[in-house]
């Protein structure tokens, strides 16, 4: 991608041109900046912020105000990637007017470029209305974490014929509603391929195999920042947690033994001034 701002039409074009899309989550300014420097196409301010940054058990307690707060920080660091923000739990479920108002708040107050809405064909009318209001939408189907309980937990979706056909129908409905891209989570790799072949907008997979149009992962997972369960579809590209803990331990040890701060990390004062101060204070 170029150094100019990535737009939803650029994302659609990537599929037509056979370019794979790189999407990663970020929740604050430094990680937004690093994602930009690494040249990712889409930065997702995911509602996974609840678990990754705020210590919540699920994404359900995440509010619109929290998403606005984190989006503002990420946007400050992301001049070129497309910034997409998750619509959190129940912000698009209580009617089309509420959905447009809530998505509008996120765009206006958060400053993101697009929103992501979880849900299949039953969310077609909502996605259509939001897109018609001028807000670009990325869909999210397959495993939808906000309703994981109703889907039987964090499990692979689309494993039998009916469930697989339903997810393909979901993708077609969300495309017809005007979404510029769809995240497909936790489906068997061959189904990921079938979904990608069924629509002309890019399918960005997370646990959907390699034959989709791009990949998205949670940044804490790929950097190895958690000691918790790592899902099968996550490949850690670094193991930063032990490195960070080691650094903190060394810092603690040096503070306790007066090794830090050493002269290199301390400010100096002229002997003359020091002497004068001593005399004045006697
Ligand atoms: O919230 C999030 O991080 C997401 C990704 C898992 C796609 O929705």
What does this structure look like?
- By secondary structure, the protein is of the alpha/beta class.
- It contains 11 helices and 8 strands.
- Helix 4 (64-77) packs parallel to helix 5 (96-110), helix 5 (96-110) crosses helix 6 (124-132) and helix 7 (161-176) runs parallel beside helix 8 (189-198).
- The longest helix is centred in the C-terminal third of the chain and has 17 residues, at 240-256.
- It starts with 7 loop residues before the first helix and ends with a helix.
- The model has no long low-confidence stretch (mean pLDDT 96).
- Bound molecules: 3-methyl-2-oxobutanoic acid (KIV).
- The site of 3-methyl-2-oxobutanoic acid has 11 residues, from loops.
- 3-methyl-2-oxobutanoic acid is lined by residues 25, 44, 46-48, 86, 140, 183, 206, 216, 218.
What keywords describe this structure?
single chain; 282 residues; alpha/beta; eight-stranded parallel barrel; 11 helices; 8 strands; 13% strand; elongated; binds 3-methyl-2-oxobutanoic acid
What's the topology here?
Layout: H1 8-16, E1 21-25, H2 29-37, E2 42-45, H3 49-52, H4 64-77, E3 82-86, H5 96-110, E4 114-118, H6 124-132, E5 137-142, H7 161-176, E6 181-185, H8 189-198, E7 203-206, E8 214-217, H9 219-222, H10 240-256, H11 271-280
Parallel strand pairs: 1-2, 1-8, 2-3, 3-4, 4-5, 5-6, 6-7, 7-8
Helix pairs in contact: 2-4, 4-5, 5-6, 7-8
The chain binds 3-methyl-2-oxobutanoic acid.
SS field, number of helical segments: 11
Shape: elongated
Q: What is the gyration radius calculated from CA atoms?
A: 23 Å
Q: How many DSSP E strands?
A: 8
Helix content: 40-55%
Small molecules bound in the structure, each named once: 3-methyl-2-oxobutanoic acid
- Beta-strand share of residues: 5-15%
Instruction: Give the distance, in angstroms, between the N- and C-terminal Cα atoms.
Output: 67 Å
Give the helix/strand class: alpha/beta
Low-pLDDT residue intervals, each spanning 5 or more residues: none
- Mean of pLDDT: 96
What summary fits the major beta sheet?
A: 8 strands, parallel, barrel
Strand order of the largest sheet: 1-2-3-4-5-6-7-8
Helix and strand string, N-terminal first?
A: HEHEHHEHEHEHEHEEHHH
